[in-house]
Structures are given as structure tokens and as C-alpha cells.
Amino acid sequence: MNPDPHPDTAPQWRAEGDACVARGDIEAALRCFESACALEPAAAIHHERLAATLAVLSRYAEAEVRYREAISCDPHNADLHHGLGWTLEQLHRLEAAVDAYREAVRLNPRADGSSNNMGNCLQALGRFDEAHEAYRRAIDGAPRVPLYYRNFVQTKRLAADDPVFVQLEQLAGDAASLERADQAELHFAYAAALSGVSRDDASFDHLLKGNALYREGLRYNEAESSGLFARLAQLFDADALAAVRGLGDPSAAPIFIVGMPRSGSTLIEQILASHPRVSGMGERTEFGEALVHCLRRDPGDPLRIDIETLQEAGASQWNALGADYLRRMERVLEESEGPVARFTDKYPFNFINVGLIHLALPNARIIHSRRSPLQTCLSIFSRIFHDVPFGYDLGELGRYYRAYDALMAHWRRVLPAGVMIEIEYEELVEDFEANVRRMLAHCGLEWDPRCLAFHETTRRISTASSAQVRRPLYRTSMRRWQPRRELLEPLWEGLGPELAAADAQRASPDT
Fold first, then answer.
1. φ, ψ for residue 302 (rounded to 5)?
2. Which is a Pfam family this sequence falls into (predicted)?
């Protein structure tokens, strides 16, 4: 006998919704949970299921409403406050998220996940002392969760006798008892802690172990990435760009900051966001989303565009792409900042899309953030990034950097003058004011001395550099400790002799 396709009670609708979630039919689950809420509006569990499903669909504003309805039904449920906090995080309302997580911890002092997430939000807001307290609470509540240690030690240098350092060292001695993914997290956390007490050789040994473990769990097609870069350079040469130039949306509001991760882009954005006419929007993926929406999709993968058809795009498509991107960003700005004259978008991997950005938004300005290849790669290798699959093997990392460098050299050759400038991190540190003036002039912004005091600007920063850009510039940030040459041989081979020689020229004698 087939089950009744139309449940009669709210619990039955909820059970049917859970079954839909289990088989991946999220839209059907949504309808089931809505029916359960309609039948039993005072039952918090129905609203919670509906809120969580809306969040899966990235409908966070609606999810917030449902979490608040659930909380009104069951105000002492810590899990509901945690869900609300997570939803508010996705809406970039971090102050409100902190309040929600704090209430979850008040209701359940052992809610380690809420303490950890609260720490992440406080860190992004620049409230580091409070963030460190939250991380300590998370570790106290769950001392065998390596993620909590990693979040903590990436923004806090611990003394060797700090209780958290001691706990981390003990856990590292028992790493074999953890799941493989947790072992990788643990090695990254312990590596950062060891670096903080200048045990650099031991730190790099743990980085090698952590990266190797993390790489095992990733799917990364190196040939596909390098092939994409090469094909874009072929499709969009100077003639192809000139043929359709000026057909996109005329807005001059966006300032794109592109480059490799850990190359100084967060610093550049913080400087620009210190200008009263600029809002720093952080790492946004809206251009890629608009690209998939507006241009022909790959028939084998609906989440990707068909690269070979890009040359066929005409004025209407480039204009639509630019307009769609601006609409998406306007929604984000309305939710967080309100109307602004200019905004930054510092998603680093937009370096792939530089030519397309220029066609869709010909008056947008682009800043390419560059740093020593070795320092960039070592910094990437020292951290877990969830959108950097090439960063966990030194050879793959070096080859990716070389392919990125070649693509950026192509964009540099084919873009018209005045569209993109390059900011070298080392030059920015050495001659700060001159480079700040150069950036502002490039973006058509008048001089403002607040850009020199960037570390005093209060704003949300969710990248791995959130702690560094809260401090004035310091020259020791230019060259980090590096391991013996033989340990880095795969990286040097991947980078190739030209980049290796260029990197050697960047190294100053006193570092």
C-alpha cells in the first residue's frame, strides 16, 4: 500500500518534509514544512524545520523570520538562537548574530558551536579580546575539536604555557585517535601555535602533514584550471575586447580588487573603505553568479558558463551582465550599508574574469594586488581555505600561481589604459602614502587622510587578514620565515625559473 500523499496532521507533514530533505528534494520539503506550520503555528519545531530549509535555499531573510517565530514559541531553546545567529551571519549582520549566539550560550553554557561562531563574528568585527574569550569557552566545552583551536591560534599568539597551547599540544600527541579531517585541522592549528613560539621547523613539519591530509579529501582538476586560463587568453585578445568595448553597463560604482589570496587585497580594501565615499563589501561572488545567469550555460553543468560561446555575446548580453551584477550588489548594500557612491568587491578569483568584467562594466576600476610569489604561496600553504583546492600541494600551488601570473600578464596587455593598476604589496609597505594616492586617483576619488589611518576604520572583515589590517603597517610582514630550500623544491619547480628569479629580486637585503 502506498503512503498517503496528503498527510492529515502537522507531525505527518513534518515527517514527510524530513523525508524530502533526506532524498534531496528541498523545494518539496519546503512545502511540507509550510503545511505543518499552518496546521500547528504554535509548535516551534515546524518553524525551525522551515527556517533551516529556507537557509539551505539561501533565502536567509525569510529564514530569519521563521527562526524568530520559532523562538517566540520556545524562547529557551538554545538551538533556535544558534540557528538565528548562523542565519544573521549569512546576512552579514554580525552584531545581531553575536547577540543571538550569546543568548544560545546563556541558555546552554556548553554550547561550544555557538561560542565558536560567536568568536568568528567578533573576530570579523575587530573585537579580538572578546573573540578570544569565546574561543576559549568553545575549547573548554569541546577540547577535542581541532577547528576551535585553529580559529583561535590564527589570531592569537599563545605562550607555550598558555592552557590552550598545552591542551593543543596534548591533542596533537593523540592525533591518530581523530578522524582524518580532524587530524588535518589539528596539524594546521598546531603549526600556527608552534610558529607563534618560534618553533618554525616543527611548525612547517606539521603544515606538510596537515596539507597532505587535507589534499587527500579534495577533488581538483589541475589541467582544467590551467586550460581555462589559456582559453580565456585566446578568446579575449586585444581585438576581441576592442570589438565589443563600451557595450556594458556604464556604472562606475564598482572597484574590483583581484589577485591571489594572501597577496594584500584585504589591506587594499581596508584603505579604500576608509574613504567616506567607498563601502568595502569584502569577498563577493555576485559577478560569477550573474555570469552564469546571463550567458549561455554549459549543457553538462548548469552552474558553469559555456566558455566557447563567450565571443558570440553582443551588446545586450554584456549590458545585461553588468546590470544584473549591479542589481545583486544593490541588494547586498541595502541589507548592510545603504546607498553608497562606490563599493569594493575583493573576491580574489575575479582575476579570471577581468576581461569579462571590463566588457560588462567598462567604467569599473580594477586593482590587481600582487605580492612576492614565495610569500604568497607560503601564506596560502599555512592555512585552510575552503575555495582554494590548489593550495595543499606545493607543486600544484606553484603551477597555479604561474598560470595565474600568465593570465594577469595577458589582461595587462589587452586592457585599455586606465582600467587596471597593479599594487605591489612590498612597494605599498615601503612607500605607503604615494601608493595610496595612486589608488585613489585611479578610482577617481579625492584625497582623504583617513585612508592612511586605515587600521582605525571600523567595519566587518571576514578574511584571514582580519587581524593584520587592524594594525598599522609593519615591515616584518613582508618576508615570513621560510624552510630549507630542499623542502620547497616542488614549489620552486612549479613556479618556474622566471618567477623564482623575480622573487629573489623582491627580497630586500635586510630580510
1. -65, -10
2. TPR_16
Residues whose CB falls within 8 Å of the CB of residue 393, separated by 6 or more in sequence, listed in order: 211, 212, 215, 490
At residue 303, does pLDDT exceed 60?
no
- Residue 255's SS3 state is strand
CA distances from 119 to 99, 153, 235, 394 (A): 12, 12, 45, 31
The neighbouring-strand residues paired with 367 are 257, 421
Q: Which residues pair with 423 in a beta bridge?
A: 369
Q: Quote the pTM value.
A: 0.88
Residue for grid cell 553582443:
314
C-alpha span between 47 and 51 (Å, rounded)? 6
Angle between helices 200-216 and 180-196 (to 10 degrees): 160
Whole-number Å distance between alpha carbons of 345 and 355: 16
Q: Where in the chain is the domain with CATH 3.40.50.300?
A: 222-474
pLDDT in tens, 163-195: 999 999 999 999 999 999 999 999 999 999 999
Domain 222-474, CATH homologous superfamily name and number:
P-loop containing nucleotide triphosphate hydrolases (3.40.50.300)
Reduce the DSSP state of residue 302 to 3 states and report it.
strand
Q: Is the pLDDT of residue 479 over 80?
A: no
- Category of 463 on φ-ψ map: left (φ > 0), alpha (ψ -120 to 50) or beta: beta
Do 242 and 419 contact (CB within 8 A), yes or no?
no
Tell me, letter by letter, the H, E, C secondary structure of 356-398: HHHHHCCCCEEEEEECCHHHHHHHHHCCCCCCCCCCCCHHHHH
Residue 3 confidence (pLDDT) above 80: no
Q: Which three cell numbers stand for residue 319?
A: 549590458
- The alpha carbon of residue 366 and the mean position of all alpha carbons in its chain are separated, in whole angstroms, by 19
Instruction: Answer whether residue 468 shows pLDDT above 60.
Output: no
| Non-local CB neighbours of 359 within 8 Å, separated by 6+ positions | 241, 244, 245, 247, 248, 313, 318, 321
Write down the CATH number for the domain with range 1-75.
1.25.40.10
Specify the long-range contacts of residues 381-384, CB closer than 8 Å, at least 24 apart.
381/207, 381/211, 382/188, 382/191, 382/192, 382/195, 382/207, 383/154, 383/188, 383/262, 383/464, 384/150, 384/184, 384/185, 384/188, 384/214
Q: How confident is the model at residue 319 (pLDDT cuts 50, 70, 90)?
A: very high
Question: For all residues of the chain together, what is the average pLDDT?
Answer: 90
* Residue 425 CB partners (closer than 8 Å, separation 6+): 263, 264, 267, 369, 370, 371, 372, 478
* Parts of the chain belonging to CATH 1.25.40.10: 1-75
